[in-house]
Amino acid sequence: xxxxxxxxxxxxxxxxxxxxxxxxxxxxxxxxxxxxxxxxxxxxxxxxxxxxxxxxxxxxxxxxxxxxxxxxxxxxxxxxxxxxxxxxxxxxxxxxxxxxxxxxxxxxxxxxxxxxxxxxxxxxxxxxxxxxxxxxxxxxxxxxxxxxxxxxxxxxxxxxxxxxxxxxxxxxxxxxxxxxxxxxxxxxxxxxxxxxxxxxxxxxxxxxxxxxxxxxxxxxxxxxxxxxxxxxxxxxxxxxxxxxxxxxxxxxxxxxxxxxxxxxxxxxxxxxxxxxxxxxxxxxxxxxxxxxxxxxxxxxxxxxxxxxxxxxxxxxxxxxxxxxxxxxxxxxxxxxxxxxxxxxxxxxxxxxxxxxxxxxxxxxxxxxxxxxxxxxxxxxxxxxxxxxxxxxxxxxxxxxxxxxxxxxxxxxxxxxxxxxxxxxxxxxxxxxxxxxxxxxxxxxxxxxxxxxxxxxxxxxxxxxxxxxxxxxxxxxxxxxxxxxxxxxxxxxxxxxxxxxxxxxxxxxxxxxxxxxxxxxxxxxxxxxxxxxxxxxxxxxxxxxxxxxxxxxxxxxxxxxxxxxxxxxxxxxxxxxxxxxxxxxxxxxxxxxxxxxxxxxxxxxxxxxxxxxxxxxxxxxxxxxxxxxxxxxxxxxxxxxxxxxx
Length: 645
Ligand SMILES: [Zn+2]
What we know:
By secondary structure, the protein is α+β, with helices and mostly antiparallel strands. It folds into 4 domains: 8-47; 53-213, Penicillin-binding protein 2a (Domain 2); 303-575, 3-Layer(aba) Sandwich (Beta-lactamase), CATH 3.40.710.10; 588-644, Trypsin Inhibitor V, Chain A (2-Layer Sandwich). 35% of the residues lie in helices and 22% in strands. It has 21 helices and 26 strands. The strands form 8 sheets. Strands 2, 3, 4, 5, 8, 17 and 18 form a 7-stranded mixed β-sheet that branches. Strands 10-9-21-20-19 form a 5-stranded antiparallel β-sheet, sandwiched between helices. Strands 1-6-7 form a 3-stranded antiparallel β-sheet. Strand 9 (242-248) and strand 10 (255-261) form a beta hairpin. Helix 2 crosses helix 3 and helix 14 crosses helix 15. The protein is globular, with a radius of gyration of 35 Å. The chain starts with 5 loop residues before the first helix and ends with a strand. The relative contact order is 0.09.
């Protein structure tokens, strides 16, 4: 044992004495308090209580681009009783059971329960709460809260998302912008006596809640509704599994519509809407239920990857034109396939496309042309473009859960993998990644960030923050982009996308029919991607139909639907048609003045209307009503509805 010097021993002794003294003082003090002050303190603790109530913050609205409300918060109340304050339990139970449509016995049991605060009912309409307040019975507490409400129900459900009862976003924009929307809860601190009654003369400490801010988005309710209606109709007609239509501005990445079907009701997001699952819901374990709900809420445009197929030829073309491994008028031979490293890879046209130029190869969507281009580029160069278009990264869209593209490591890419990637196989990407890359390919080479959020506003509509999203310039040269636009325009004017052509509008696009894996299952995803007007495109649309029955070609299934969508939304967005002289004479373009058919017989009316078709309603000798009215200007191919009476 080490020796302790005298100096240290002395210090140690002083320390020991100090400690003992301190302990003695403490023991004495505690004893004194217990003996002489105990009753006083107990009384004080019994008498004074702080009661804290939360003052809930109103969650901010979500708006579309025109200010239409997509998500809002309605005021609701929760009704509770403070047991100690109740003077006449039966009267309280009678009032509450009447106003809240609850059983008297049930309410009375709750009122008589010996707990400090008993909730009777939540989400009570403010006018009901007001009647309860006016009755003035002691012991009833009314708290104001808010209930999230989505005026359009299922519209854009996967995008808008929803918030839980605690005002926290659960999916969609409600999560991404939660910090702006949620606001800050306040509190009300009241000093009460043991019975919970506020002490007279005591001050209430009130900290007001701060309302959440408002999120303005790029969504457009009108475009979203058009897209959803057309999508629903197509899925029904083709008895398909699911489908999507995305409408984006390819210059800045603002998304006007993202229609995904099936969808779900934002006002009732925890009720499964799949009939089969609903029937067995109660027998499912909670894990399977959560899995099923997640599946229902899923946004496959950003959460899932697929083999894009021929729409990906836009990217192969961009790379090949940039690297100058092809010219527009170079000719290719397609005899129905191409042999790559001893493997015969077929073109979709078994008999082959014969001799065709590069431009015709794009119009025909000829696989051997794109296999040849990919092989000319080589894996390293091809991958340089896959990286430039960021297929290995998330697009950065402002909705969570995004997936990234799945591709081979470049060192594992042999000729077969490379050739098939050239026409959109052997690589899996999200629909949103494809849309973003295609936007860069035709907008001059700027890789935009697709997004919905545009501005954060205060309750009065003042802009607090303009949301900004990154743009990477120079993915391809502007000249290459321009060439590509013109090539893709010919796909719609002359090639596989012709069913999307609209007189007066320049439209560029590409169709695709992707075979789902395993290929032996013979299941397909039909798709069509297009942009308009070709120079300075304002709209880019991608439509996908997953597992259509019967005819499954993208040009047949999707192109006509996108045409119908654009015919409606282009005039709505103020994008005017630009007719050639020939087009101006076409019946769907040329305009006529509606003749006055009132009072005529049907035979006379038919003669007067000439080539304009009549839609005849009612029975009688004479025309008593017509629509449109005489003198209005309409397209030559419009019908006039006449009522006989
Ligand atoms: Zn071919």
